[in-house]
Amino acid sequence: MNHQNREDRPAQPLPHGRGSDRAKPQPVRAREEAVAPERPRREQGDNPMAQRPPGRKRAARPPGRKRAARPPARRTRESAAARQARTARLLTALKRQYPDADCALHHRSALELLVATILSAQCTDERVNQVTPNLFRRYPDAAAYASADSAELEAAIRSTGFFRNKARSLIGLGRKLVAEHAGEVPGTMEALLELPGVARKTANCVLGTWFRRNEGVVVDTHVGRLALRMRLLTTARDDKDAVRIEHDLMRLVPREDWTFFSHALIEHGRKVCLARKPRCTECALAADCPSAGSIR
Length: 296
Ligand code: SF4
Fold this sequence. Notes:
The protein is 44% helix and 0% strand.
């Protein structure tokens, strides 16, 4: 089409800038202000809750909406004497609840208990009790462990986990017992701690359970967890801090009850004070446990 003059020509789009009739891109804030109606500002004292007439109930919270979290209540510090008295009451309750609390590992001798305790590291007592009948038949004394074929021993204890380390410990244990203790398990803390694979937990268990000597508290995963929940720890940093947990509990519990206290706490941890969902409503210790009902 031939356009004769300027007025006949269709209007050409102009570039952005001077004289353009297209809307300029606005900054985001300006666009929002253009569309959103102005919201009235809340004045001080404009809080509807504060203005609720006396006697009138608060409006129901919409379903599915959670109550805002409140700051935790401040704990009051328990005195040493109060903690001591509370521990005595907990001990009484444990004696009533678990009068026959004992080591759950099946054994007929100090050596069997020592071997089973070494195998129980990072493993359940039930699993160890499944493994030990055949193991004890195949390796009846220290000399049998001393001369064991490592691959065969590893296969026998494989299901308890960490079986290579454990097999190495058992062979070393057998050799040391034969060489230095005439094949017998020694009954002192010092001598037990010299044996491969033996630390304080194992030594306390063997001494307290077999030799009936209270040299310390057996601190396993249950004892650490329960002592922390019952707020019996004063120096331990957490429930894995075994050395300090043992020290804290030895100061609170009478020496003659150290071994019983350990076995009873372990039984309570298995049956009632479970790791994930403690059964506080059926717990005989709840009256003296500061964590009762607070673990979800
Ligand atoms: S009251 Fe609850 S947290 Fe405390 S010992 Fe009992 S089960 Fe465990």
